[in-house]
Design a protein that fits this description.
The strands form four sheets. This protein has an eight-stranded mixed sheet, with helices on both faces. It has two domains: 141 residues, 6 Propeller (Neuraminidase); 219 residues, Rossmann fold (3-Layer(aba) Sandwich). Helices cover 21% and strands 30% of the residues. It is of the alpha+beta class. The protein is globular.
Length: 415
């Protein structure tokens, strides 16, 4: 049905059987490539991109009953939305705040369906609650149908979450983030701060429920989480600022966020902590190799050495081709320049490593390398090996609790 160079997936037949909608993109071997919405005749003829003027990924699609438009799901500035897109590419937002099905950290997600009369049913979440069921017919018509965690939140107080925008110290580019405050926050006090960094790196955090960050806040920390360059939901240009350049100036984006929160006056600049998982683990190890500002760090499921990573992680046919200019032995200097192991000689920050023993995406051998290097250099360190855990450590609730407990225990040791 398709023959271009590029992935095509998720075909959906229109109700009259005349057209097929599908997702894909032309292959450019970039780390981040927008997922586009296409339609073609049911015999495969006349394919056309209807979302090519829409600078966002299309994550899901459902044909409208009349066959003249499609319902789509997409992320925009850290919020997941449902919209209606005409066959000419016009977009009309219908609902927002999808998500809440990933309980650990505030990633995008969620799902929706459409009734014959156009009413939407979807997973609805805000920072105040995980996914509940809601219905809507358009913006401003949302009706929440369930309150599944009322019994919990009647006696558990959550931290308030505020959006923040600030300028990167590298190029003054605007960066979006969120601050989670401890319950019973007092702006006249000075609090310790945790910078929590998302993975991916082509992913986004947002105004969604997050158990881990709420647990950090409940322990008395102000928590900052942001979408530095390379994050999705801001368009192709922003996402590809780290193409063949990661980690890089995303470091400046993150540090500018820390400074922006300190400037508000309620954070003790002498009590800063940093953690992140996967891509966030890469950036955490990169940060402690470039600055001593943080009292302690927890590097979760990281990549430390890109040369070794591309050869034994779970995508050896992918990473070297999309994230780097070529094979590691042909570009050794490039690989090592971007590897946190190259900065390990600078590290003075007490640093814990935390990885699942069954992680195939960022194998535990990456953590073992960094642990050994820190030990050789006399840096205070610890390695936590989580049995039977893959890359999604928090997939088991007990592992989520264990992960948070270890992180808070390490930070508390260096208060």
């Amino acid at each position: 049905m398709t023959n271009r160079k590029g992935p095509d997936s998720y075909p959906v037949l229109s109700s009259d059987g005349k057209k097929i909608a599908y997702l894909g993109h032309d292959e450019h071997y970039q780390g981040y490539q927008l997922t586009r919405l296409y339609i073609m005749n049911s015999d495969g003829s006349m394919p056309q991109c209807i979302s090519c003027n829409f600078d966002r990924d299309v994550d899901d699609l459902i044909w409208a009953a009349d066959g003249k438009s499609l319902y789509i799901q997409y992320d925009d500035h850290g919020n997941t939305k449902i919209a209606k897109m005409t066959l000419g590419g016009q977009v009309n937002d219908l609902a927002s705040d999808l998500g809440g099905v990933s309980l650990g950290r505030p990633y995008g997600g969620g799902s929706f369906s459409v009734a014959k009369n156009g009413r939407l049913a979807y997973t609805y979440s805000t920072p105040e609650h995980p996914a509940d069921l809601a219905v809507a017919t358009g913006i401003g018509t949302t009706k929440r149908l369930t309150d599944l965690n009322r019994d919990l939140f009647q006696f558990k107080k959550l931290g308030k979450v505020d959006e923040i925008w600030y300028s990167s110290s590298y190029d003054q580019r605007k960066v979006q983030g969120w601050i989670c405050y401890p319950p019973d926050f007092d702006a006249n006090k000075k609090y310790p701060l945790i910078l929590e960094i998302h993975g991916g790196p082509f992913a986004n955090y947002g105004d969604r429920f997050t158990a881990e960050i709420q647990l950090f806040a409940a322990a008395g920390y102000v928590v900052l989480y942001t979408n530095p360059r390379g994050s999705t939901s801001y368009g192709a240009e922003f996402g590809n600022l780290i193409h063949h350049n990661y980690p890089s100036e995303d470091y400046d984006d993150l540090m500018a966020g820390v400074d922006a929160v300190i400037a508000k006056g309620f954070v003790d600049p002498n009590r800063l902590y940093v953690t992140g998982g996967s891509g966030g683990g890469v950036l955490t190890s990169w940060i402690v190799g470039k600055t001593d500002r943080f009292k302690a760090a927890v590097v979760a499921k990281p990549v430390i050495n890109w040369y070794s990573f591309v050869l034994y992680a779970d995508g050896p046919a992918f990473f070297y081709k999309y994230w780097f200019p070529g094979k590691p032995w042909d570009h050794m200097e490039h690989y090592m320049k971007r590897s946190p192991i190259s900065l390990v000689g600078n590290v003075k920050t007490p640093t814990m490593l935390l990885t699942g023993e069954s992680d195939y995406r960022t194998p535990i051998a990456e953590s073992e390398q960094y642990y050994a290097a820190l030990k050789i250099n006399g840096v205070e360190t610890m390695m936590v090996r989580i049995p039977n855990a893959g890359h999604g450590i928090a997939d088991q609730p007990s592992n989520l609790i264990a992960k948070v407990t270890y992180i808070l225990g390490w930070f508390d040791k260096y208060k």
